[in-house]
Amino acid sequence: MAELVFTPSPLQNHTGGKRQFTVPGSTVLEVLHNFCRQYEAASRYLMADVGHFMPYIRVSVNGTGIRDLQGPATPVRGEDTILIVLASAGG
Fold first, then answer.
1. What CATH code is carried by the domain that includes residue 45?
2. Kind of pairing, strands 81-86 and 2-6?
3. What is the average per-residue pLDDT within 66-83?
């Protein structure tokens, strides 16, 4: 199990106001897939299709972006924290 923490406030509308979860899985993708099974309404904001996150989603494990690790296949253990943030753009 890994600790899953969301910072995007918009997702709270689809999780009953919760921002932090403990979700089973051995990789980042597996954890998020299991989360999306439990909170199906949130999945459309997170997952583009099987194995791919929406382009505006940034995911890190223990403070390191998964792009610098093994991507969605990054392994996680019980003490790991997965952080999800919405990328923002300015103009």
1. 3.10.20.30
2. parallel
3. 94
